[in-house]
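L-lysine 2,3-aminomutase
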Amino acid sequence: MITRSEDWKNALADTVRDPAELIELLNLPQELVEPARQAAAAFPLRVPRGFINRMKPGDSSDAVLRQILPLGAENTPLAGYSTDPVGDRSAAALPGLLHKYHGRVLLAITGACAVNCRYCFRRHFPYSAENPAQGDWQQALGYLRQHGEVNEVILSGGDPLVYDDERLAELTQRLAAIPHLQTLRIHSRLPIVLPERINDPLLTWLTGSRLQPVMVVHVNHPAELNHEATAALERLRSAGIPLLNQTVLLKGVNDHPDTLAKLSDKLFAAGVIPYYLHLLDRVQGAAHFEVPETHAIELVATLRARLAGYLVPRLVREIAGAPGKIPIT
Ligand SMILES: *Cc1c(COP(=O)(O)O)cnc(C)c1O
Ligand code: SF4
């Protein structure tokens, strides 16, 4: 596929944000519009048109649709579901800089994403106020220079790949100039939801420094891996970038062993190793996605009995203050 290098910006600008338009495009019942509007007032709808193509028209329980369709249920506050379930706000060493785990620092370089996932634990995060890009990265880079024990920087967000290649190339160069850094990790959903983002300029900065690149993508359901997404993954893989996937375990989306097994198979066929299967972070507005821990453990046991060991993702939960993701067994 030939893509002009700036095509992705048009696709990003052209995402669907009006619930009525989404519902019309997919021939869904009109009654969904009003609750979707109400939920979208708290956390906007946002979805690329190419991602909508992977949803089945007329099916309001479609597994890809459910990830992005705002529902009335989101507006009901529930005990035990908070606005900062993983303690990111208190953990921020600097605005947007999270140093929670040994040896690696996560830079939430933007709050923006190409898609707004309804279960996202960052849906309440005050990004515009806490963005390390403000002040030209100086503070974040200064922190990294002073922390010789850090060898890996994770660009995250939001989605770091909504930034343009010039800025990302410049940031990469400045990171590569810090001698103790070795690895540049990208956490992004764009290769899946906006595959045109994986263009030559991106591959050039990502592979063009002395830092070892690695990318962690985010796929929850096998239907997300259409031809365009697998082609984008192939471009990354051909450039020598190791690819891992993280999945969030979501009720009504992927809480079935057949779905998860098929996802692992399709990921592997696309050159991606399943990395984490996350239990839902208990964020306000996402309670309807919760899968009980006991069921999650059974699901993973079924996968282990069916699949090669390297195709079974690690079931984890994030707990505020913990030194890493907590394995659930
Ligand atoms: C998840 C996460 C990481 C990465 O953890 P790995 O187990 O290395 O994938 C790093 N920092 C923060 C703040 C995180 O939330
Ligand atoms: S792409 Fe990731 S960060 Fe963005 S809304 Fe979805 S889950 Fe959240």
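thats it. The beta strands are 92-94, 97-101, 104-108, 152-156, 183-187, 212-218, 243-248, 273-278, 314-317, 326-327. The pocket of pyridoxal-5'-phosphate (ligand 1) is lined by residues 98, 100-101, 104, 106, 154, 324-325 (CB under 6 Å). bye
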